[in-house]
Amino acid sequence: MPTTQDRAVALLHGLEEGWDTLRRRLRGAPRGPLRIEPYLGHGDATRLRLRLRVLAGAPLPPPRPGAGLAENLRRMARRFSTDEVAHARVRAAAGGRRLDLAADEEGFAEIDLDGLDPLPGRGLRRRPVSLALPDWPGVEAVGHALVVPREARLGVVSDVDDTILVTGAHSLWRNLYTSLTSDAEGRVAFPGVAAFYRALQAGRAGAPTNPVFYVSSSPWNLHDLLVRFMALHGIPEGPLFLRDLGLSAGGLTLKSGHARHKLAAIEALFAFHPNLPFVLIGDGGQHDAAIYAETVRRHPRRVLAVYVRDIATTPAARRETADLLVAVEGRGVPAVLCPDLTRAAEHAAKAGWIEPEAVAAVRGEAVREGRPS
User: Fold this and answer.
1) What total of structural domains would you count in the chain?
2) How many other C-beta atoms can be found within 10 angstroms of the C-beta atom of residue 69?
3) Which range of residues forms the domain containing residue 227?
């Protein structure tokens, strides 16, 4: 039987749909040129999955050097005032296969292709995906899917906020201020992240072989910022699993479903790559320990280790995280709680997942850059 909250969500979702429909009718045709915004997907030798969004208007240009607060606010406002094209027909082609499908009401579409021609080569590599809008000739784009090779020994699932990127996500107001006032150039990376993730990606093969996936509750509107941030700091690229900002028939995606979103993304990754074990990395401020403990409960044989950065602001929060990691270890999965990633790197090296020399690089990066408060 529907609860009061269920009815309220359904009502709000209906109002949002009605407003979007009215807005589209009032403005008529989409404003400005249409474009396809593909996000990095993932796959194996013969399959791929890729998400995209159909939007109207010019893309956001790169930031000016030395941009101030006012410009950063304007850029952030543009990120969140997207002019999506609802229900647009999308055509995707890759590896000798083609797929036609329709975008949803927010302009999102997810491409699933299998039976592809095998992609030659070794190590992590990109498979191009041709994208087009059949109803708008000339609107085309090329997306890419990161191909996970057979020789991959592990995959990494990483949180973003306060795991690789300093945001203060455990504090609503601090997180909001950081999100609104800083572009990629103004964001701070946690020391040791780049060195450790590059070591995990290379493994013992000496070349990029193991995939890194980033799961976050941040909205898709921040995708370009996060990609640029990782490139600026030398953090390995990988598919991002973000959230749609707004209402849905299933709930208030902005205010609820944090754990549900992350668990669903992890479940989808585990299902798509059934033979790949994973290392899970997060922080103690956004319930990552609880999410990863549940993942271990469901898939104890698929998780190699859980690494959690200790950013707890109270003794009670630290005890809660520690207790959850004790439960993880009780299921036979190693768990490390540490202020930076040096101890995690030491554990990974002893397990044979990274080169021993990489520990010194992680430690050196942490010492050189210092630990952000």
Assistant:
1) 2
2) 11
3) 155-369
Domain identity same for 96 and 170 = no
For residue 165, give the amino acid letter: L
330-357 pLDDT, tens digit each = 999 999 998 889 999 999 999 999 999 9
* Rg of the chain, C-alpha, whole Å: 21
Tell me: do 314 and 335 sit in the same domain. yes
Last residue of a domain, one of 84, 115, 147: 147
Q: Output the domain CATH number for residue 227.
A: 3.40.50.1000
What's this model's pTM, rounded to 2 decimal places? 0.86
**pLDDT higher than 70, residue 369:** no
What lies within 8 Å, CB to CB, of 235 at 6+ separation is 164, 189, 193, 194, 197, 198, 229
In a domain, 21, yes or no: no
310/291 Cα distance (integer angstroms) = 15
142 and 186 both lie in a single domain: no
Distance CA 276, CA 156 (A): 10
**What's the average model confidence in pLDDT over 239-245?**
91
| pLDDT value at 124 more than 60 | yes
Residues 361, 342: Cα–Cα separation, whole Å: 9
Asked if residues 56 and 83 have their Cβ atoms less than 8 Å apart, the reply is yes
- Whether 3 is in a domain gets the answer no
Tally the C-alpha atoms within 13 A of residue 372's C-alpha that lie toward its C-beta.
15
- What single DSSP character describes residue 138? T
Q: Could you give the 3-state DSSP secondary structure of residue 210?
A: coil
Mean of per-residue pLDDT scores for the chain = 85
Residues 211 and 312 in one domain: yes
Are residues 116 and 175 part of one domain?
A: no
For the chain, report the end-to-end CA distance as a whole number of angstroms. 47
Q: 255 is written with which tokens? A: 């205010």
pLDDT band at residue 246 using 50, 70 and 90 as cut-offs = low
d(CA 134, CA 145): 22
Q: Which of 222, 211, 202 is nearest to 349 (CA)?
A: 202
Same domain as 257, residue 119:
no
Mean pLDDT of 143-157: 97
Beta bridge partners of 165: 161, 189
Rounded to whole angstroms, the Cα distance separating 81 from 25 reads 18
pLDDT value of position 187: 73
- Examine residue 11 and state whether it is found in any structural domain, yes or no: no
